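To: structure desk
From: M.T.
Subject: fold request, one chain
Message: Could you run this one when you get a chance? Sequence is below, nothing fancy, just the single chain.
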Amino acid sequence: MAVRKKWAIPIDSYSKMIVWFLDGNIRTFYSLDWKSSHSHSKDRAIGLQRLQNKITEYSPNAKKIKIYDLASDKLIAHYESGQMFITIH
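Reply: Done. Structure tokens follow.
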């Protein structure tokens, strides 16, 4: 089997974010837990900060936003109408 030289989404992501928009669209985003595609290590904090930036960007147009841990498929955070309802670390 060939060795991958770059990180791959969603295979190497720690988290995913699902956004339900007010217009009815639903989009899934995966965390980018590395500084560049050639980084040698991953950092969950980097990925969660990038998802937080997306929440700030999309929250005015979103009905609800949920963030899940991909390894355990557990809910990490739930935002609705711009307010966080639950956060689990």
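Reply (cont.): The helical segments are 44-58. Let me know if you need anything else for the meeting.
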